[in-house]
Design goal:
The protein is an alpha/beta fold and about 230 residues long. Helices cover about 40% and strands about 15% of the residues. The protein has a domain of about 150 residues: Rossmann fold (3-Layer(aba) Sandwich), CATH 3.40.50.1370. It starts with a helix and ends with a helix. It contains 10 helices and 7 strands. Helix 3 crosses helix 4 and helix 3 packs across helix 10.
């Protein structure tokens, strides 16, 4: 029905199976705005802001981030972490992620298997899980954090997560371990005092609002490309 009424669909869903079902039954483009294993629309905006921060135009996107170092610290069992690892491998970057250990925090094994395949391609980058925030951030060109409580976690579970995640908070001291020109990223919304301090997200190294604005520009470009693909 939707295929007869609109030119494209953008869907934010709970599971990968749902987006696959939409696509299988559609004769128009279906854009995955988010699922439980990926956040590809965020990746387009992130890629754009990283290229911009290095003074590289879109035409240089194929190799413009080769060798760049990206650190993600905090909750690494989530779709943004997974897609940043994939993106890093595809773009030839060196990605290090760090977060608490345990079943509630470790990345999915299937994602790590996918990363191994992506990183084995000639010219690909690497993506690895390291033990500490300090190890991940050392020498990084980009330091990335994301919400610790994305799904409305409350009460005792929230307290438990806060205690486990606080060693991975991005503060001013941690940022000193990164490259002097390092940029701080967060896909928003952000909570000052949790995944990062106010001094970091509101400081001169933060590019979070450029990053957020690019959600508009990157998605407009994608929709235009999909809808106009046969013209």
């Amino acid at each position: 029905m939707l295929s007869r009424m609109v030119d494209a669909v953008t869907a934010r869903v709970n599971t990968r199976d749902q987006i696959a079902g939409l696509s299988a039954n559609s004769t128009i483009p279906v854009v995955n705005a988010l699922d439980d294993y990926a956040h590809p629309m965020q990746m387009l905006a992130d890629l754009q802001v990283m290229l911009e921060s290095k003074g590289i135009g879109v035409s240089g996107a194929s190799d413009g981030l080769q060798g760049a170092k990206l650190a993600f610290v905090g909750d690494i069992q989530n779709n943004v972490t997974y897609d940043l690892m994939r993106l890093g491998c595809v773009m030839g970057m060196d990605v290090k992620v760090a977060g608490p250990k345990g079943a509630d925090y470790d990345p999915e094994g299937s994602v790590l298997d996918e990363i191994k395949v992506l990183s084995a391609v000639e010219g690909a980058g690497t993506a690895v899980v390291v033990d500490t925030a300090q190890e991940a951030v050392a020498g990084a060109d980009f330091v990335y954090a994301d919400s610790w409580m994305s799904y409305g976690i409350q009460g005792e579970e929230r307290d438990t997560r806060m205690a486990a995640l606080m060693p991975f908070q991005v503060d001013e001291k941690l940022m000193t371990l990164a490259s002097p020109q390092a940029k701080f990223m967060n896909c928003l919304p952000a909570i000052r005092g949790e995944e990062q301090t106010a001094g970091v997200i509101d400081g001169p190294q933060s590019i979070v609002f450029d990053q957020a604005e690019n959600r508009l520009h990157a998605q407009k470009a994608l929709i235009a490309k999909l809808i106009l693909r046969d013209l």
